[in-house]
Amino acid sequence: MVHVTWAMLANAKTLSAGLITGVLLAVFLQHITHLHLPSDDFSRNGGLGSTTHAFLDNMALSLSKPLQMAQQTWRHAAYKSCRVAQSLPFCQQPTISRLPTPIFSSTSRTSFSTTSATMAAQKSFLEALKDRRSIYQLNKEAPKSDKEIVDIVNQVVLHVPSSFNSQSTRVVVLLNQEHEKFWTLTAEVLKPQVPEDQYKSGTEPKLNAFKGAYGTILFFEDPQPVEDLRKAFPIYAHNFGDWSEHTSAMHQFAAWTALEAEGFGANLQHYNPIVDQKIQNEWKVPQEWKLRAQLVFGGKAGEAGEKQFKPLEDRVFVHGAKN
C-alpha cells in the first residue's frame, strides 16, 4: 500500500540529499589517508598519529546523522520492493504474530462466486461496489454455507494489501450460536451503562436486530507488526498507527463487498472498546489485539435506504487525461 503526502515528499527530498552526501563522503573517507597531513602527525612506523585519529573521529561523529538518514532511505526503498528486500541482508520482514488456524480451509476455487473466474461472470467488481450498502434488516437465511463463508474471509485476509505488508489484521468469525452469544454479551455490557428508557426504546431493539442476523466478523489489529515497523523505519514511526487503521478498513470493506457479491446483506458496527475485555476473555483473543469493527451479516430481509451523493466535480479532480 502506497502512502504519499506532501510532508513525505519533502522528507524524501531531504533524505535523498543525505543519501548522496553519504555516498560521496564514504568515497572521501576511503581515500583520506592519501591526503597530505603534517609529517609530525605520523608515527615512526608509518601509521596515523593522534591528531589524525582525532580529526577522523570528529568527522565520523559529525557525519553519523546524515549517514543514518541515508541508510534508512536506502532500506525503505529496498523494503518496498519485495524482490529486492529478500536479496538484501539488512532487509528483514517484520515479525508477524501467528494467526489462529482457520476453522475451515478451501479445497476448491470454483465453488462460489468470490473467486475471480465466476465472480466476473456474475457481477463485476464495480457492480458489487455499487450494491454494497448498509442493510439493517437481516435474517438467518444464509445464501452460502459456513464453509463458504469462512473461505470468503480466508481469501480476503490472504489477498487484501496492508501497509508495508505488515499483515496486522486479525479476524474472528462468529456463526450461529457464537454470533448470538456475541450480541448477548454486548447487551450485558451496555445495559448498565445506558439509561433504562433509552436502552428499551433504542439500544435493545438494535442489538436484537443484530442478533437476528446470521453471523458477525470481528476485526482486530495486532500491534506487534506495527511496532516492529516503527523500530525498523523510525522516520515513518508516527505514520504507522494511521496506516494500521487503513489496513483494517480495507479488510472490512473487502469482506463486506465479497459477502454482498454472494447475496448477503451486512452492516458495520463499532461497539469497541466497550465490549473488548469481555469478548477477549470469551473467545481467548490476545489482550493486546485491538478490536476495530464488527461486520454483521445475514440474509436480506429488507433493502437499503436511499443514498444521497455529493457532486463528483467537488470530489474528483483529474489532470493530464488525454481521452
SSE class: alpha+beta
Number of domains: 2
Helical fraction: 40-55%
- Overall pLDDT score: 78
The major β-sheet equals:
5 strands, antiparallel
The number of helical runs is 11
Tell me the CATH superfamily of the largest domain: NADH Oxidase
Instruction: Give the overall shape.
Output: globular
Terminus-to-terminus distance: 28 Å
**Proportion of β residues?**
5-15%
- Which stretches are low in confidence, meaning pLDDT under 50 for 5 or more residues running? 1-11, 27-48, 77-113
Task: Sketch the topology as an H/E string, one letter per element.
Answer: HHHHHEHEHHEHHEHE
CATH architect. name of the largest domain: 3-Layer(aba) Sandwich
CATH T-level topology of the largest domain = NADH Oxidase
Alpha-carbon Rg, integer: 28 Å
From the structure provided, what is the oligomeric state, counting identical versus distinct chains? single chain
Count of DSSP strands: 5
What is the top-level CATH class of the largest domain? Alpha Beta
